[in-house]
Amino acid sequence: MKQPLSTLQDWHLLRTLVKQVERQFTSNSNMTPTNRNMMSKITFYEENNFQGRSYECMSDCSDMSSYLSRCQSCRVESGCFMVYERNNYMGQQFFMRRGEYNDMQRMMSIGIMFDNMKSCRMIPDHRCQFRMKIYERENYGGQSYEMMDDCNNIQDRYRMSDCQSCNVMDGHWLMYEQAHYKSRMMYMRPAYTFEH
């Protein structure tokens, strides 16, 4: 599955978001993983400061346009979500954890690079191992390395000139466009393959 990104050079992996999800659910350890995932909840609002019509979501939503004409603020009550600037989980995306996001203009100052949210994906709880295989070239060619933990600079750690394809085997990951977890990000989940 191809993503609309300008370049994959200097992409960097991060598993921290999954650790944060685990910590949020640890307080209620008697619940099954399925019940813990059902606790995830995000509410979107048409206007800033949680005003106007709202839409409550506890799972993936590929198109919010039938519920809201636009989305200018949101509140993550539990769990973690990825939000997307376009329908069907397309375009730029942003990781949102528990908290209040009351103004899209302010949200741009913390890394959101778009002025509306059109779809969202819930990030499920994951308590097993984390594995992703990255490849230097497209179609899984060139050098390859298996990743099992955070990496703040793929180029430095593995001496790879580029990262143009990958295969997510276990866990939920974020890829960043620049070193040290900066700039645009892309959410990747198990059974996900990426070819630039």
TrEMBL record:
GO terms for biological process: lens development in camera-type eye; visual perception. Gene3D superfamilies: Crystallins. The keyword Iron does not apply. Signal peptide: none annotated. It holds the Pfam family Crystall. Residues 40-78, 79-124 form the Beta/gamma crystallin 'Greek key' domain. SMART domains: XTALbg (SM00247). The keyword Protein biosynthesis does not apply. Keywords: Eye lens protein, Repeat. Crystallins are the dominant structural components of the vertebrate eye lens. This is Beta/gamma crystallin 'Greek key' domain-containing protein. It comes from Muraenolepis orangiensis.
